[in-house]
C-alpha cells in the first residue's frame, strides 16, 4: 500500500495531464491529445495501487479529486463540441457534393454545374 504523499503527487500528475489535454483540445491538436490519452491510461493503472487508502480523510486529496473531476467534465464538453463542429462541417460538405446539376449550355453542349458553397443558401 502506498502513502498519502505518493497519492497526492500522483493526483497532481493527473491534474496536470488534464490541464495539458484541455489546452490541446482548445488548439485542436489531435496528435497531442492521442498521446495524452495514452499517458492518462498509464496513470489510471498506477492509481489502482492506491486502492484501500482512505482518501476521504485527506482534505488535499479530496480537493485534487474534485479538481480532476471538474477538468475531466470540461474536457469531455470540449471533445463533444469539437465532434459536433466536425460533424456539421462534414454534413455541409457532403450536401454540397450532392448538389451538382447537369444542364445544357447556350451552345447546346452538356455541362455539369457545380453550385458548391459552405453556407446553405437554399430558402
Protein architecture, described:
The chain has 123 residues and is mainly α. The chain has one domain. Helix content is 66%, strand content 8%. A two-stranded antiparallel sheet has the order 1-2.
Please tag this protein with its features.
mainly alpha, single chain, 66% helix, 123 residues
Structural class based on helices, strands and sheet pairing = mainly alpha
- Mind telling me the C-alpha Rg? 25 Å
Proportion of residues in extended strands? 5-15%
Query: Secondary-structure element order, as H and E?
Result: HHHEE
- Count the strands? 2
The dominant shape is: rod-shaped
Helical element count? 3
Taking strands numbered 1, 2, ... along the chain, how are they ordered across the largest sheet? 1-2
Estimate the mean pLDDT confidence: 84
Taking pLDDT < 50 over at least 5 consecutive residues as the criterion, the unreliable ranges are: none
Helix content: 55-70%
Largest sheet: 2 strands, antiparallel
Tell me the count of domains. Answer: 1
Distance between the termini: 67 Å
Give a brief description.
This protein is mostly helical and 123 residues long. The protein is built from three helices and two strands, in the order αααββ. It is rod-shaped and about 85 Å long.
SSE order and pairing:
Layout: H1 4-27, H2 30-47, H3 59-97, E1 100-104, E2 110-114
Antiparallel strand pairs: 1-2
Amino acid at each position: 500500500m502506498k502513502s498519502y504523499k505518493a497519492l497526492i503527487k500522483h493526483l497532481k500528475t493527473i491534474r496536470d495531464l488534464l490541464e495539458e489535454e484541455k489546452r490541446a483540445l482548445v488548439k485542436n491538436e489531435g496528435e497531442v491529445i492521442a498521446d495524452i490519452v495514452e499517458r492518462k491510461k498509464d496513470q489510471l493503472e498506477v492509481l489502482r495501487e492506491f486502492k484501500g487508502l482512505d482518501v476521504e480523510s485527506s482534505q488535499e486529496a479530496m480537493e485534487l479529486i474534485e479538481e480532476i473531476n471538474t477538468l475531466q467534465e470540461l474536457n469531455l464538453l470540449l471533445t463533444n463540441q469539437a465532434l459536433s463542429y466536425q460533424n456539421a462541417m462534414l454534413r455541409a460538405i457532403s450536401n454540397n457534393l450532392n448538389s451538382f446539376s447537369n444542364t445544357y449550355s447556350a451552345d447546346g453542349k452538356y455541362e455539369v454545374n457545380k453550385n458548391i458553397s459552405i453556407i446553405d443558401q437554399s430558402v
